[in-house]
Amino acid sequence: MRFLAAVLLSASALFAQGEDFSADLLQAALRGRNDQVKAFLDDGANLEAVDTNGRTPLLLAAQHGHAATVELLLGRGANASARDREGATAYVLAMFHPAGHGNREAVLKLLPAPPRPKMAIEVKWSPLKLVSSCFGTRDAVVRTVDDAHLDDQFSRAFADYVQSSGRNLVQLVGRAEDADGLLRVELQPAAACAAQAGDTLSLSIEVQVLRELGGKVVWQKVFGNGLKELRAQHAANLEQYAPMFRPWIQPHAGPIYWAAAGELYRIAGAR
Q1: What pLDDT is stored for residue 196 in this prediction?
Q2: Looking at per-residue confidence, does 17 or 102 come out higher?
Q3: Strand pairing class (199-210; 233-235)
Q4: Mean pLDDT over all residues of the chain?
Q5: Domain extents for the chain?
Q6: What is the pTM of this model?
Q7: Candidates 1.10.150.130, 3.40.190.10, 3.30.160.150, 3.30.70.100; correct CATH number of 118-269?
Q8: Mean pLDDT of 249-261
Q9: Angle at 61 between CA 57 and CA 62, to 5 degrees
């Protein structure tokens, strides 16, 4: 019995040691310390160990741009399809959520690119925040903004960004039924009479990503007023509305695209 107890105690100690190695492996991978990564793996650390966010050594190395570490882990058989608790793979983290100052492009070349997801987009505008004007009735303000066709302008700006600066990572489709996810965009122009200053104008954009039309919202965010050139301005008449609102549309296309595309890759791969 004493001999058996000693064997069990020894095995328990080795298991605990392996757990420690796995925790150390995660830190070494995050920092791109290849010699340590090799040593911990040789000592029995778990190649697919996960941190509190569900990220394996490969996911951490990829997110922080450590190409040599990614190559090493892949060579040891690391699972490139592993997902963290939010459903992101190593490719998704490197592309959409990079951290540190590593070589993201080199990492992406090492990882298998997932299929390009299909995105449908639904754009509308809301008059809810058009409170008042010093220069006309609220109905007149709503007609003025409607004539500016802000929704059409956003749709064009977004499609242009996908092709020009968005690395063509998603495929835009016309019907939500044919898409992996739906991007729902609501433009919310705001106007209020500020007496001597004229009408105070601003623009916010509420964005949602849905798995499907009428389905669950998996991500949402409000964009607007975060960039210096997009902050509130004052109009001296209704004719100035369109020239002020329109330039605020295009700068939002990029940030919305990258946020929505990252979510789309996550939910498309989890189907």
Answers
A1: 82
A2: 102
A3: antiparallel
A4: 89
A5: 2-110, 118-269
A6: 0.81
A7: 3.30.160.150
A8: 93
A9: 115
